Amino acid sequence: MIRVEHIYWLIGAFLLVAAVMDLRVRRWSAAAFWAVLSLPFLFGDAILAAAHEGVRWPAQAMGIGLIALGVLAARGKLRASDDSAEASAERHAGAARLGNRLFVPALAIPIVTVALVLSAPHLGWRSMALFDPAQATLISLGAACFLALLLALRMTRASFAQGLGEGRRLLDALGWAALLPMVLATLGSVFASTGVGDAIAAIVGALIPADDRLACLLAFALGMVVFTVIMGNAFAAFPVMMAGVGLPLLVLRHHADPAVLGAIGMLTGYCGTLLTPMAANFNIVPAVLLELPDQYGVIRAQWPTALILLAVNVTLMWVLVFR
Amino acid sequence: MNAWPLLGVAVVVAGFALRFNPVLVVIVAGVVSGVASGMGIGDLLALLGTSFTSNRVLLLFTLTLPVIGLLERHGLRERARMWIAGFRKLSLTRLLVAYLALRQVLSMFGLIDIAGHAQTVRPLIAPMSESAAERNAVLDERARLRVRALAAATENVGRFFGEDVFLAFGAVLLIQRFFENEGIHLEPFAIALWALPTAIAAFVIQALLIVRFERSLRRSDATSVQDPLPSAAGDRERPPA
């Protein structure tokens, strides 16, 4: 049976290959970054199993590794090298030669994933399921990526090593940004264990009538927007607002549907992203790129959408989460 | 209640606002809130290590990188640009609404970075929007800048409200992990599905605002320009070839 750990090993192996490739071109901090990051994927099961048995040193070592990742990220030398004219000519030739077929492997990833998720309950041999039913979506996605890579390699006639090399190029271009969701989820767990969520819930509970579910919902939605505007990132607002208001007040107390609250709550944060200069990549950089004299020109063009959509999201949550 | 762990929230807010490296800010915030809650160093390191390890599913998207990297090497972005350039004959409303739809669908399929402000808006969508708007109205400098800003806004709306429908996208898995840590099991599939109503609403709202924008452009053109340039007027009255 394929379990999600097998997919993790695949990721760990890819990160390790990226580290070795960076080592060969003497990009030391990038190599160290990906090598440390491969550890939770290669040894994650062992770390969690040991912690479960009360053996804490592997988890503590991983904690030190995480702090090292933060320091390496802040050194910020993970940027990829610049584009060459030769590579550009090659890309244009490829675009002309392969045409719309180029989209096929990329679109195959989501399509094969959905097909595998839907057929997973029927795949298997005798009573043994092919995919671990508890994690079918994630395993399907991993398998779909692997199949799409084979398709892309066949189509472009590139070697497997070239495929990994291109993957490493993108990984280096992403750099620490690739790690941000994972460390934010970690922060969410830390906030929950250290009582941050309870403290925020107590404060919000003192400010608004916690028995009133509409008041709680409004506090959650506006909190997502305000925290996103301050931090420029809805991902960072999510663990704070969910641990403080969403989970204790809405899900546990008023029995809100967590899937709906999570999905639409995050998108409510995105309305804040449209409003804030802190999200510079999306709101300030394009104003510069488009030579607008007003650096808030893009925000001015999108605030009506953000506010109308915020009202729509609150209404959607009100109708859908308490069904 | 111990309020000291809230210092961790203050670290996140201040760190992001002061533009320190986000990854470092988040890790420092975790350490601060742990120390402030009175946790020992050994316990804190173990908590960081186990939480980090149990959230490793969030890097699942790295498995898409070799495929996307390989396709980009062979011209995926160039092909996408050629495709968008095919919209050249459309009116401003149709051009931007078509781009909005395309952008949302591409994001939903995980092709989030195939387009963007640098890749498609500056070289293609912004100049094409200007020339499309000029076909129906005479643009002054202010209107020209507003057309460009609207093109950038359309890119943002299309990107943001499509990507959450993609399973491997960080937001979906971040939500799933948050609840999993609290003992609530959700399928990523269900979360992505509930992002659809907002995605559709975002499309409708932005499309209507684009329609309204082009109307106001024509109206202000009709009132402010009494004597349009003969050539421009001639262009407008000429039947389409």
What does this structure look like?
The complex is a heterodimer of chains A (323) and B (241). Chain A has 3 domains: 72 residues, no CATH class; 74 residues, no CATH class; 126 residues. Chain A is mostly helical. Chain A is built from 15 helices and 2 strands. The radius of gyration of chain A is 23 Å and the shape is globular. In chain A, strands 1-2 form a two-stranded antiparallel sheet. In chain A, helix 1 packs across helix 7. By secondary structure, chain B is mainly alpha-helical. Chain B has 2 domains: 51 residues, no CATH class; 172 residues, no CATH class. Chain B is built from 12 helices and no strands. Chain B starts with 6 loop residues before the first helix and ends with a helix. The C terminus of chain B is likely disordered. Chains A and B meet through helix 1, helix 2, helix 3, helix 4 and helix 5 of A and helix 1, helix 2, helix 3, helix 4 and helix 5 of B.
Based on the model shown, name its key terms.
heterodimer, A: 323 residues, mainly alpha, 3 domains, two-stranded antiparallel sheet, 15 helices, B: 241 residues, 12 helices, disordered C terminus
Task: Give the structure's gist in a few sentences.
The complex is a heterodimer of chains A (323) and B (241). With 323 residues, chain A is mainly alpha-helical.
Low-confidence stretches of chain B: 226-241
The structure class of chain B reads mainly alpha
Q: What share of residues of chain A is helical?
A: over 70%
Number of strands of chain A: 2
The shape of chain A is globular
| Helix and strand sequence of chain B | HHHHHHHHHHHH
Provide the number of structural domains of chain B: 2
Kindly state the number of beta strands of chain B.
0
